[in-house]
Specification:
Layout: E1 2-11, E2 17-29, E3 35-42, H1 43-46, E4 55-65, E5 67-73, H2 87-99, H3 105-121, E6 124-130, H4 135-148, E7 151-155, E8 157-158, H5 171-185, E9 191-197, H6 205-217, E10 222-227, H7 231-240, H8 247-253, E11 261-265, H9 271-280, E12 283-286, H10 288-294, H11 301-307, E13 310-313, H12 325-337, H13 349-355, H14 358-363, E14 381-384, H15 390-397, H16 402-412, E15 418-422
Parallel strand pairs: 1-4, 5-6, 6-7, 7-9, 8-9, 9-10, 10-11, 11-12, 12-13
Antiparallel strand pairs: 1-2, 2-3, 4-14, 14-15
Helix pairs in contact: 3-4, 4-5, 5-6, 12-16, 15-16
């Protein structure tokens, strides 16, 4: 076993933060050999229970759960920061041409290395990510994630129409490839597979039907796609699928709404859409930096909470503008406050942090597994240095409450705040 002494942040079942100024985190194997949290709480209360365990003392530091990114595109690592007039031009001018390069396994491997380095440098220890339409892109990412001991979920993109040469796939082959990748990667170590229609307009009815059949055949795999991000996209989806009640309902009509189904954006919803999310157990990946960057709109937190469906935070790199969870949490605060197109809310710092850790884990169906530091959770965590910059040091020293401290970290933090990222299952 190993133990760490520092300030300790974790979350209770009611989403509130639990914070120990002088905390102790004890990590050790469970009955299956997984490295999990064996104990977490105040140093004074717990230290005597572990007399033979060496304690690493981290004065002035905060230990917090590793962040969970609910939606990100690993092949768009090099597309981040590309100017565009909106979602569809951005896809056409930057994303699709770049993704065509991922047929090359060596290139896919090069980008996967940079991508995983960036995640870990920013304190992200679990992610649900798109690959490209090329099976080699999945192999590159999940192979490297497995070597690092990361909990990573990814899938080959399905897009058999309205896509350019180089990324458009063949309907039948795409489904064969998807099933083969499920067998190859799902459940290997900490890896998971996600059936991944890019978005409904990029898929024929035959491809969506096949994806739904695979989702029924493999109920423990994930599903990921995009929905209701952009008004032009919504009009397009309605024209292509006139029989469906709404854009979201397209996915339900093809058997793609269930537990472990994650839909990015979910901006332009009505209450029927929200109720469908709730009744099926699907969850929204809120992507505020991407939505602000592309001018897509603002996620309606009041509507989500009023109807009661799951959601969590996501960077959505490369439409999103940063790998940093701190940038994402701050953008979510801006989005929540916007009150011209929807009810404005002031999201608490604890709620923002929960959305990127325990809340995102809950959305994935991994509650109690990742995203928290309660006993039994896999012990992925970050060591944060509140003195990482002069301004951070000055502001955090003056924090009069936990909310003030957390909000200062959110507003002023970036990758410099993350002193260390610990992946508990990594083999030496």
């Amino acid at each position: 076993m190993r133990a760490y002494r520092a300030s300790l942040l974790r979350f209770a079942d009611d989403r509130t933060a639990q914070f120990e100024e002088d905390g102790l985190l004890v990590v050790g194997p469970d009955a299956t050999g997984r490295q999990v949290v064996r104990a977490a709480g105040s140093f004074q209360a717990l230290a005597a229970n572990y007399p033979g365990v060496a304690v690493e003392h981290l004065p002035g530091r905060i230990i917090a759960p590793g962040f969970v990114d609910l939606h990100i595109h690993f092949p768009q690592t090099d597309v981040i920061g590309s100017p565009a007039e909106g979602l569809l031009p951005w896809l056409e001018n930057y994303t699709f041409p770049h993704e065509s390069r991922f047929a090359d396994a060596a290139y896919a491997g090069e980008v996967a290395t940079v991508f995983l380095d960036e995640l870990q440098r920013n304190g992200v220890t679990t992610a649900l990510t798109f690959a490209t339409s090329h099976p080699a892109s999945v192999d590159a990412l999940l192979g490297q994630a497995h070597a690092r001991g990361l909990r990573m979920i990814a899938g080959k993109v399905l897009q058999d129409r309205h896509s350019p040469d180089g990324v458009r796939d063949d309907t039948e082959q795409s489904l064969v490839d998807t099933e083969a990748l499920i067998h190859k990667w799902h459940g290997k170590g900490r890896l998971g597979y996600a059936i991944t229609p890019r978005f409904a307009p990029s898929c024929t009815e035959a491809q969506l039907r096949g994806a739904g059949e695979l989702a029924a055949k493999y109920p423990d795999v994930w599903i990921q796609s995009h929905v209701a991000e952009n008004k032009d996209e919504i009009r397009w989806a309605r024209a292509l699928f006139p029989q469906s009640r709404s854009y979201l309902a397209v996915y339900d009509d093809f058997g793609l709404m269930r537990e472990r189904a994650i839909y990015a954006h979910c901006i332009h919803f009505d209450d029927d859409d929200r109720a469908l999310m709730r009744s099926t157990g699907a969850a929204a990946a809120v992507s505020p930096t991407s939505n602000l960057f592309l001018g897509s709109g603002f996620f309606d937190y009041e509507g989500a909470d009023r109807i009661g469906f799951r959601y969590g935070l996501a960077s959505d790199v490369g439409g999103g503008t940063s790998f940093s969870p701190f940038h994402t949490m701050l953008a979510a605060y801006y989005v929540g406050r916007e009150g011209q197109t929807k009810p404005g809310l002031s999201l608490s710092p604890q709620a923002l942090w929960w959305q990127h850790t325990a809340g995102a884990a809950q959305a994935l169906g991994l509650e109690g597994v990742v995203g928290n530091l309660q006993p039994g959770c896999e012990a992925d965590f970050v060591v944060l240095n509140p003195q990482a910059t002069p301004l951070l040091a000055r502001r955090t020293a003056r924090a009069g409450s936990l909310d003030e401290l957390l909000f200062a970290l959110i507003v002023l933090g970036d990758d410099r705040l993350v002193e260390r990222t610990v992946v508990s299952q990594r083999t030496p």
